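PROTEIN DESIGN WORKSHEET
SECTION A - STRUCTURE
LENGTH: 403
TOKENS:
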């Protein structure tokens, strides 16, 4: 048998008795097939097979009995009952032996591949279960975070409303005492000027100036707080009409500054007409305020439409925007402050040199964001500034005004 099978590359382990077979199987379990004589010393093949198959971990090894006797059916049944899968009778037919061994070795190899595949699938399933478990945990965590975020947003909106209400009420309540301060200081200067020495007159003038600045600040805070409560009602409005009205109302400061306002034809856009006037008023006033000394201010207002395929910061979906440019030849600013200038109370220049409350541009930003648009600024020291207001050209369904 060794001579027949070794050339095919099989590893053969020999045992001279049933006990030796059992001893070998205690240390080496990886056998594809057992070829065993029925007649052996101490234990015969049937007894040895029964002892082998008593062990759970050995039951997978097929046994072929080798015998020179032609047993009756009862003994053949006994062999199969002991666990035999086949018989080979002596004298051994070499071709038959090699064919049967090849079949069982092939089955053994396929079983090993199946076991390896099964282990791989088990590992994959385990990883999938872990991933599913982790994903579920992540989803639950995301849901919890979303819930916390929604709760925080709700609390923040409530806090903002309360803050706006507080700003409105506080500013409103400050109006009365401030009006009295201005009224009494005016009376002192007008009715008792002769009885007040020059220093007193100077102090009263300072009180009036400071009171005026405080009045302007209160008015700006009131306007800022009102924007949040302004209803989001948008309708097609001719911007030319709004800008002309703003320019007409600013006729005094424009003449005083000897400014030139150049306005191209502007389109009609879906906007809140109440909020557009303070937007343009603040932007034009900003250009006049920060004009150069000894140089007449020139402010140009023009527009252009964004292209459908154009990349634009803050763009939502396929929304197209109308970009409105307010350009001036004023003192300009360092571009590194382009975002900071829209913060509340942010001033790049001393208040003594340039009047203002530091709320105007913050108000503009809030108005533009109310329209789902965005505002930016470009500037260079000594070369003027450009403010770009981008407003959506379409009305979203929920924002359509029904008359």
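SECTION B - SEQUENCE
RESIDUE ASSIGNMENT:
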């Amino acid at each position: 048998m060794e001579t027949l099978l070794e050339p095919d590359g099989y590893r053969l382990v020999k045992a001279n008795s049933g006990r030796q077979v059992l001893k070998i199987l205690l240390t080496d379990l990886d056998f594809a097939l057992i070829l065993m004589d029925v007649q052996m010393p101490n234990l015969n093949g049937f007894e040895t097979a029964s002892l082998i198959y008593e062990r759970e971990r050995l039951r997978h090894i097929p046994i072929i009995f080798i015998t020179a006797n032609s047993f009756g059916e009862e003994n053949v049944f006994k062999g199969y009952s002991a666990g035999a899968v086949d018989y080979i009778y002596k004298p051994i037919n070499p071709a038959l032996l090699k064919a049967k061994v090849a079949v069982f070795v092939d089955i053994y190899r396929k079983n090993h591949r199946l076991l390896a595949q099964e282990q791989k699938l088990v590992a994959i399933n385990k990883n999938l279960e872990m991933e599913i478990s982790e994903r579920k945990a992540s989803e639950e965590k995301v849901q919890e975070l979303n819930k916390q975020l929604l709760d925080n947003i709700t609390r923040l909106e409530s806090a903002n409303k309360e803050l706006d209400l507080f700003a409105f009420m506080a500013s409103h309540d400050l109006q009365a005492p401030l009006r009295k301060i201005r009224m009494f200081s005016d009376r002192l200067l007008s009715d008792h000027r002769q009885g007040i020495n020059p220093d007193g007159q100077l102090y009263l003038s300072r009180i009036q100036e400071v009171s005026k600045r405080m009045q302007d600040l209160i008015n700006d805070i009131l306007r800022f707080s009102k924007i949040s409560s302004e209803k989001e009602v948008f309708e097609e409005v001719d911007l030319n009409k709004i800008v002309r009205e703003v320019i007409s109302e600013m006729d005094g400061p424009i003449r005083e500054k000897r400014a030139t306002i150049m306005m191209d034809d502007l389109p009609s856009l879906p906007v809140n007409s109440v909020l557009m006037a303070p937007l343009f008023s603040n932007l034009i006033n900003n250009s006049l305020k920060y004009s150069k000394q000894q140089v007449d201010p020139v402010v140009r207002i023009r527009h252009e439409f964004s292209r459908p395929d154009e990349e634009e910061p803050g763009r939502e979906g396929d929304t197209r925007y109308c970009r409105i440019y307010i350009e001036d030849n004023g003192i300009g600013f360092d571009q590194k402050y382009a975002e900071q200038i829209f913060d509340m109370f942010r001033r790049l220049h001393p208040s003594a040199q340039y009047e203002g409350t530091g709320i105007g541009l913050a108000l503009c930003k809030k108005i533009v964001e109310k329209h789902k648009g965005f505002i930016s600024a470009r500037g260079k020291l000594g070369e003027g500034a450009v403010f770009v207001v981008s407003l959506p050209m379409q009305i979203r369904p929920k924002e359509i005004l029904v008359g």
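SECTION C - NOTES
The chain is about 50% helix and 15% strand.
The mean pLDDT is 80.
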